[in-house]
């Protein structure tokens, strides 16, 4: 089997959790990153949900593509499904991405897109409501604040500004 590219736009940027051969900047056209998925396990609970990023239709999203060796793909795919599809709010998809330092190469990447019809899809929330959920969310993988701070920090290291995430992080920090 050929190697497979996996697109990371949220926690995969800083907590990949699987072996890969290579990593490169990537941009997916037609989708954007947003804090729109209620987390009932990793960054919250059913009683006190947190929020995590989802990939949603429209715009574009910069992140990283991780090249997985073909011989490892089935075990990595199983790991990703266990991690990303805990409540089936995310749907696995193959999408086109621009890869490489200059984002000039085009290839298919495997990623997860949020299902807007799922009960854990939060929809459009105000910055204040989003910040409150981030601030109070805590689950098996830690706090929503850690999730968002790590995501924003890793994006900054990559030279990527996500102003929406930065606004939410600033608002959440103001309340602490």
Quick overview:
The protein has a single domain (4-174), classed as Roll (Hypothetical upf0131 protein ytfp), CATH 3.10.490.10. It has four helices and seven strands, in the order βββαββαββαα. The protein has helices at 73-84, 127-136, 144-157, 163-174, and strands at 4-8, 22-39, 50-68, 90-99, 105-114, 138-139, 142-143.
Topology of helices and strands:
Layout: E1 4-8, E2 22-39, E3 50-68, H1 73-84, E4 90-99, E5 105-114, H2 127-136, E6 138-139, E7 142-143, H3 144-157, H4 163-174
Antiparallel strand pairs: 1-3, 2-3, 2-4, 4-5, 6-7
Helix pairs in contact: 2-4, 3-4
Describe this structure in words.
With 176 residues, the chain is an alpha+beta fold. The protein has one domain (4-174): Hypothetical upf0131 protein ytfp (Roll), CATH 3.10.490.10. Helix content is 27%, strand content 38%. The protein is built from 4 helices and 7 strands, in the order βββαββαββαα. The strands form 2 sheets. Strands 1-3-2-4-5 form a 5-stranded antiparallel beta sheet, sandwiched between helices. A hairpin with a 2-residue loop joins strand 6 and strand 7. Helix 2 crosses helix 4. The radius of gyration is 16 Å and the shape is globular. The protein starts with a strand and ends with a helix. The mean pLDDT is 96.
